[in-house]
Amino acid sequence: xxxxxxxxxxxxxxAEFPVLEGSIGPDVxxxxxxxGTTGLFTYDPGFLSTGSCMSRITYIDGDQGILLYxxxxxxxxxxxxxxxxxxxxxxxxxxxxxxxxNDWTGRITRHTMVHDQLTRFYTGFRRDAHPxxxxxxxxGALSAFYHDSLDINDPEHRIIAAIRLIAKMPTIVAMAYKYxxxxxxxxxxxxxSYTANFMHMMFATPCENYExxxxxxxxxxxxxxxxxxxxxxASTSTVRxxxxxxxxxxxxxxxxxxxxxxxxxxxxxxxxxxxxxQIGDASKIGEFLKKVKEKNSGVKLMGFGxxxxxxxxxxAKLMRxxxxxxxxxxxxxxxxxxxxxxxLEKVALEDDYFVQKKLYPNVxxxxxxxxxxLGIPVKLFTGIFALARTAxxxxxxxxxxxxxxxxxxxxxxxxxxAPRREYVPIDKR
Length: 429
Ligand code: SDX
Known about the structure:
Blueprint: E1 4-9, E2 13-20, E3 28-29, H1 34-38, E4 58-61, E5 66-69, E6 72-73, H2 74-80, H3 83-92, H4 98-109, H5 119-122, H6 131-146, H7 155-181, H8 194-203, H9 214-226, H10 234-243, H11 249-260, H12 268-279, H13 285-293, H14 314-329, H15 336-349, H16 352-356, H17 364-373, H18 381-402
Antiparallel strand pairs: 1-2, 2-3, 4-5, 5-6
Helix pairs in contact: 2-9, 3-18, 4-7, 6-7, 6-11, 7-8, 7-18, 9-14, 9-18, 10-11, 10-18, 11-18, 12-17, 14-17
The protein binds s-citryldethia Coenzyme A.
S-citryldethia Coenzyme A binds next to loops.
């Protein structure tokens, strides 16, 4: 017998709604019949208390700082897996065996090239266009190349679309970097691993041999794993909402990239690094935090705070550790921004304002520093986030399309505008 939630309102009115239990985490009140039985809507701007779907992909416990991909702790996956293995897990629900892994990585490798005509989309952008603008355009344009060969109700078509997106994002992101730098595009190399190939397409030139540093490849691969999925965040919800209308996955992922660009979301890594540059020196931390605490200053401590985590984001801890490894490998132990970030984090975590509001470093606080050390330009940080999150987006999109309960997403509202009124001719206004 499932539990019930009772709603009572007005003069003695009441209604009951089933409470649904998940495998772990909060139960939910199933209010799908609320409007039909009571004439009431719920009101939850920002969806602070609203579950939009049932999912088996990612679980977050914000109070405990726990993140699981298909039940596996992020700490174990970040240490023991590579990104394609995690992408397989997110999509298929289980870690691949050797044959499955080889088949999966083999299929991805054979789809890393983009249609040669796609390269012409780049020349339509100014050289100094923000890479996220380029990614929104070029990923959306993939629809023009594959839309007619995609029946989203055919599981095989869905898997090939997922493989194409996971395979081509590194190529598309690297091409955005090369276009901005005025260097020739580098073709993918099938003899390299997924992340080594990405670094090759980013930093190699036709003029000399380039072999990616394995320590740096491992670090970037871990960064991709940490960003791969995160439950029903804003950009994933965007992909799901776009997909609920039957739009093709390329258009849906392009919509997700647009949403991720925002500084409150994936754009925070770029904003956090710019914030550190703006603070400049540990002696200025107090003055900066004073501004953050001024209610109407509009200044936020970028890379801090999270809708779900009211404790340390487990990814931030792993990102800080990766930072150490990369800076040590590059002999940058005294990197001034890293030392400033460590000092800023220490001061903030001891400051009552942040403690009271349960504001802790999130995934974006350190990711900018390590990406900068890897040679990735600040403007491309969110592009790397989009590359990684594509694995989560395609997994979530597939789960939604295959969900028999899914319908087109169409929220309602509390209308507070003018009631019906008659037209007034202009000479009478
Ligand atoms: C990501 O959802 C996800 O899972 C996202 C993500 C993912 O993997 O997909 O984890 C990736 O987007 C991480 C978050 C990156 N964003 C930033 O670092 C930008 C700075 N952070 C904030 O903008 C904010 O913390 C949010 C947007 C992340 C969360 O905002 P909420 O949940 O809507 O919380 P809120 O804005 O209501 O904040 C509660 C209070 C407010 O103060 P009061 O109005 O109660 O007085 O805390 C304050 C906020 O002003 N606050 C901050 C702050 N974050 C919240 N004050 C200063 N600095 C901050 N960073």
